[in-house]
Design goal:
The protein has 9 helices and no strands. The longest helix is centred in the N-terminal third of the chain and has 19 residues. The N terminus is likely disordered.
Length: 171
Amino acid sequence: ALGHIKARGQLTKLFYDYYHNVDKAYDNAVLALDAIEMDDGADVGYLNFILGNISYFYKKGENYLEKAMDYYKIAINNNVFEAAYAIVQICLSNTTKIPDALTKAFNIMLIGAKNGQLECQRQVADMFILGVGTEKNEKEAVYWLKQAASNGSLDAELKLLKLLKQTMTGE
């Protein structure tokens, strides 16, 4: 419990440092991560998300792309699904540096979609429609558009109606 209180303090300091001193924020995030009890998934997830951001956006350390991807994957596994979107952006903007980047992007986005992340559901539907990182699959696209629409996405509803109309009219 004492470690948890200490970690909360480091986490608060981390957010302040993140905007003022990136190197200090990175070091504080690593310290906080060490202090947090591993069963506290939310803090572990968000710390890894922050470490991923710092690693990627500030090119912190060697192999920063791989480091960022690893941190984001841990964040996703701890239900921080914003990391799925971040990882896909990394893959899509670094296709020459990351082998099978589009397939990786799709698979990671699918994790977020399956866990109810609205943006991931919409993106997965688009990827199925266009065949980006996966085979084109209209049935799967319809499924994910329905999921996103049921989660409140008006954009997904409109895309779904358009796709169904195209299917019915053969356009």
